Amino acid sequence: MSTTESSTAVYHELKLDKDVRVPLRDGSHLVADVFRPAGAGRFPTVMTLGPYSKDIHFRDWNPSYPYDQLPERGPYMHWESVNPEWWVPQGYVVLRVDGRGTGKSPGQVRGLSEDEARDYYDAIEWAAEQPYSNGRIAVMGISYFAMNAWRVAALQPPHLAAIVPWEGAVDTYREATRHGGIYSSGFLRMWSSNLRSHEGKGSETKEGKEPRPAPPPEPLGFVPPELFDARIWHVPELAKIQVPLLSAGNWGGYALHLRGNVEGYLGAGSSLKCLQIHSGDHIGPFYSLEGRLHQKRFLDHCLLGVDTGITREPPIRLAIRRSQDRYEWRYEHEWPIARTRWTGYFLDASRSSIGPEATKAECSASYTAEVDAPRERACATFSTRPFSEETELTGPVKLKLWVSSSDDDADLFAILRKLDSDGNEVTFQGSINPGIPVACGWLRVSHRKLDPDRSTPYRPFHTHDEIQKVKPGEIVPVEIEIWPTSVVCEPGERLVLEVAAHDEPRTAPFLHDDPRDRVYAREITLHTGGRYDSHVLLPVIPGRG
User: Do the beta carbons of residue 498 and residue 381 sit within 8 Å?
Assistant: First the structure.
């Protein structure tokens, strides 16, 4: 028996086709595992292609993640990709492809490049031609697999029918490597080290050949170029994405992925596109039953033509956060939310405050970026008054500062915090760590140049194509993009803005502390009041009442 029938559904037994060759246009090939329904029929396919060997189990890929706490487990679990034991019984093919130079696929790794996207294109078209395929292919996975989804969709493979980039960056310069122009090396070092530790594993062939030896690690002295270069970063042309799209971001994913999920949703040319921003860690929401049912509802519509109702509801689904574990789902029609009251909260250095009324008196606050300075001397802090009524902030945030430096440059770190009525910080779940603040943003002063065509009143877009140093003591305006957020401040609670010389430590490993790149000015001064309209533009959301 290949299927089990009931009055409402047919459940399929799983058949595994191991180490299948996937031909490529240049005469080479990739190696894949195909998990498919055992019986006759044609089924939709969910696939991934990337640098994580298909033969390494989830538990072994990242031992630091509590695998035993995952919502689903099993012998075929693979890091950041779907579980065939859940999808195949419901009539889906799951296809895992080792990218070039990964696992059992020959060649050199082509990570997040146009070449890798072309390989993916070929793999999609091959998958659509298989006798068990209904010709409709979806690309879905977390992180790297999501980043690859943006890239291959922009190439428009004829048989690609949908993508679900789950927590996946679009622009690896702005969203992963150089936030605001400042090199973020902590996560990249950790990720690269883990990847290298697995090189060669899973590469034994059916003929029993020895696995490929791991390549030597990259030189420790490598620092990526400071200015943006399209030939290096391979940002996909989002407008060329035409297939249905479900972009799933995580409020706790700032410094990696969150911005890309929003930008990808906004920029895609798809006529059917949905945006979800959830709360939780980087892995759990994808594998949760709620997450799987949401994914399947979308894919049933796109790959099977089932009317699941998704076209008759608002396209945006947001987790509106109150604290680490308190949030409510809400649907919206647009991003940013149309009813947003963009409210400027002006900095007042004389009172260390921010509020809706600008002060006429000019004042300043200074702090140091010296490496060994205690944190209280390495930041300037500004607080609202306690809110008198419940106040929701959901959307992008912009911080405008007038700033001067004792040197010819400065690195600026903007941190938004929420304090309860007793003055204790209310923290939130991050993609990796618990206990992170509301939101963060970053900017190197010499990278302050804006692209006027891509900037909006609430979201500055920096070109990162020119270094504009300042004269010591020269006062210049800068606009800092604070990544999107959602938080409800209850009566008696306050919002605090911290402008600092260093990262919030709890956001590790997404830190900007590489001594070869960091700018450590002796003194940074913020100017407020009068001519200096330093302010944070907040997305205040009124009730629908």
Answer: yes
Strand partners, 140: 164
Cβ-contact 257, 248 below 8 angstroms? no
What digits encode the pLDDT tens for the residues 245-285? Answer: 999 999 999 899 999 999 999 999 999 999 999 999 999 99
* Residue 449 identity: K
Q: Return all residues near 452 (Cβ < 8 A) that are at least 6 apart.
A: none
Q: With a cut of 60, say whether residue 233 has pLDDT above it.
A: yes
Classify each residue of 267-290 as buried b or exposed e, where b means 16 or more C-beta atoms within 10 Å of its C-beta.
bbebebbbbbbbbbbbbbbbbbee
> Are the C-beta atoms of residues 437 and 504 closer than 8 Å to each other?
yes
CB neighbour list of residue 143: distance below 8 Å, 6 or more residues apart: 80, 166, 167, 168, 257, 282
Dump pLDDT digits (tens) for 493-540: 999 999 999 999 999 999 999 999 999 999 999 999 999 999 999 999
Output the DSSP codes for 44-61.
Answer: EEEEEEESS-TTS-HHHH
Q: Is the previous residue joined to 460 through a cis bond, with omega within 30 degrees of 0? A: no
CB atoms within 10 A of CB 294: 20
Nearest to residue 22, comparing CAs of 125, 131, 146? 125
- Please provide the DSSP assignment of 206-270 as one string: TT-PPPPPPPPPPPTT----SS--HHHH----GGG--S-EEEEEETT-TTTTHHHHHHHHHH---
Q: In what order do the strands lie in the sheet with 14-23?
A: 14-23, 29-37, 93-98, 43-50, 133-142, 160-166, 245-250, 273-278, 316-321, 327-332
pLDDT, tens only, 147-166: 999 999 999 999 999 999 99
CA–CA dist 478, 400 (Å, integer): 6
With residues binned 3-state (H G I as helix, E B as strand, rest as coil), the percentages for the chain, rounded to 5, are 20, 35, 50
Q: How does pLDDT run across 366-417, given as a tens digit for each residue?
A: 999 988 888 888 999 999 999 999 999 999 999 999 999 999 999 999 999 9
Going 48 to 37 to 124 to 277, the CA torsion angle's sign is negative
Give, for 123, the enclosing helix (H) or strand (E).
helix 114-128
Cβ(470)–Cβ(477) below 8 Å: no
Dihedral over Cα of 322, 458, 345, 506: its sign:
positive
Rg (CA), the chain: 24
- 431 phi and psi angles, rounded to 5 deg: -60, -30
Task: Give the dihedral sign, CA 505/509/514/515.
Answer: positive
Kindly report, residue by residue over 162-185, the tens digit of the pLDDT. Answer: 999 999 999 999 999 999 999 999
Pairing of strands 10-12, 316-321: unpaired
Residue 213 binned pLDDT confidence (cut-offs 50, 70, 90): very low
Q: In whole angstroms, give the CA distance from residue 222 to residue 183.
A: 11
